[in-house]
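SAMPLE LOG
Freezer: B-3
Tube label: C17
Construct: single chain, 144 aa
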Amino acid sequence: MATEWACLFGVALSTYALYVEIQKHKNPSYVAACDINSHMSCSRVLTSEYSRGFGVVRYLLGDNHALNVPNCITGLIFYVLMMLLNQIPNQWARHLAFDLSVVSCIGSVYLAYILAFVLKDFCIVCVSTYAVNAFLCYKTYQKI
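STRUCTURE (predicted):
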């Protein structure tokens, strides 16, 4: 049950991140609830070059490529997929869920590095998703 709640929390965080990103693009003066100060601004992070395709896809495939989507959309897909895999009672699904959660943790470490050392910012929404990803990795490891 904890895994389902973590996935739902991840969906909520990703949905909010997408909302902030859309609002900020529509209205550059938009201030999100998670914008605390100039060094703790989720809207600055969520509209940075690293917020789409992990900042990598555009260099490999171009800005307009179908895979260069906002990271929060990737997160939404991941959390829904994790919820679905958690409902399948076989070893294959448990291993796939664990493998995906490991990939999500690798992505989280990469994005945490970008957040801290490149953008020099703190995004409570982003850090919360990193924590959800780590929790999901732990829970899926317990199931294999």
